[in-house]
């Protein structure tokens, strides 16, 4: 009789054991598990990770390479670069209060803009960019209070952003531990156009037509002439890819927010995952395909609306 009871409850026991292992494996993955490009935690487990968790807590290396001195996936070439999280170098940002920054793209690599991460603690405060330099801030983790001019304050949460025209007085104070990705460039003035302050969030931006392509596209800034760059949010479902291998005069700075895939740059093919940064020089051939079990989302800088002769 006892053996019959054990057999009766064995399927239930096995179900509970498998479910526990699945959730445990997912939790281990969130904390930086052993896979190189492992899938996101199962939605069956309660209390999933915050949005863009993988971008700020990426898997740095395969388990068998974690103790290998000098290991990195980062690659820097004449017309492109892949900058991966294990090679980030953080240091105090000039004039910021209690903030560490890591410059990922800068003019020293051949870019005409900078792209950097800013890690702020509770109560940290930003500094202004140099004269005539515009700034776009995107919140990856945490939240900030953005004060512009006299008395105007905006609260920016994860997936929110702000475009700050050159020479506009502003400050950002973090409300908790916060990670920002920031783009800055010297504004290319033209005629009498003047860009406006913009505060928004990704989910409020409409999906745009992408003729001949399957990915979903949102643009965070207006496409009008006052703006000399834009930030695109591009979503790919697993198995989707760019139909066109692009070659153009525009520069790109890219941060992979979610997912994983293969990026072609020139004649090189790179496995990429959340947290990776890519710089693309003018006219470098480029192509992407999404892999894995979850969507890819990346944030893409692109210079626009200006004559390349100027």
UniProtKB/TrEMBL annotation:
Pfam families xrefs: Cupin_2
Gene3D superfamilies linked to this entry: Jelly Rolls
Cupin type-2 domain location: 233-299
UniProt entry keywords in alphabetical sequence: Signal
Key word Signal present: yes
Signal sequence segment: 1-27
Record InterPro entries: Cupin_2, RmlC-like_jellyroll, RmlC_Cupin_sf, UGHY, UGlyAH_cupin_C, UGlyAH_cupin_N
Database matches in PANTHER family: (S)-UREIDOGLYCINE AMINOHYDROLASE
NCBIfam families, sorted: ura-cupin
Protein name in the entry: Cupin type-2 domain-containing protein
Native source organism of the sequence: Urochloa decumbens
């Amino acid at each position: 009789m006892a053996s019959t009871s054990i057999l009766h409850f064995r399927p239930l026991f096995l179900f509970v054991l498998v479910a526990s292992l699945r959730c445990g494996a997912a939790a281990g993955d969130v904390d930086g598990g052993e896979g190189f490009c492992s899938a996101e935690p199962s939605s069956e487990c309660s209390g999933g990770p915050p949005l863009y968790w993988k971008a700020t807590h990426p898997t740095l290396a395969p388990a068998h390479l974690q103790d290998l001195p000098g290991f990195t996936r980062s690659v820097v070439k004449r017309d492109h670069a892949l900058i991966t999280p294990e090679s980030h170098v953080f240091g105090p940002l000039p004039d910021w209060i209690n903030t560490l920054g890591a410059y990922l793209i800068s003019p020293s690599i051949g870019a005409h803009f900078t792209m950097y991460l800013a890690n702020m603690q509770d109560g940290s405060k930003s500094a202004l960019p140099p004269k005539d330099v515009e700034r776009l801030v995107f919140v990856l983790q945490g939240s900030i209070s953005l004060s512009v001019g006299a008395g105007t304050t905006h609260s920016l949460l994860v997936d929110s952003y702000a475009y700050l025209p050159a020479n506009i007085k502003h400050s950002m104070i973090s409300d908790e531990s916060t990670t920002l990705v920031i783009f800055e460039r010297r504004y290319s003035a033209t005629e009498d156009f003047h860009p406006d302050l913009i505060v928004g969030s990704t989910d409020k931006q409409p999906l745009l037509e992408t003729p001949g392509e399957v990915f979903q596209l949102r643009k965070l800034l207006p496409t009008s002439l006052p703006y000399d760059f834009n930030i695109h949010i591009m979503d790919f479902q697993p198995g989707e890819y760019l139909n066109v291998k692009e070659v153009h005069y525009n520069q790109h700075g890219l941060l992979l927010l979610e997912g994983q895939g293969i990026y072609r740059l020139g004649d090189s093919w790179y496995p990429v995952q959340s947290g990776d940064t890519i710089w693309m020089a003018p006219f470098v051939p480029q192509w992407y395909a999404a892999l894995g079990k979850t969507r890819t989302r990346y944030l893409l800088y692109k210079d626009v609306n200006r004559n390349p002769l100027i």
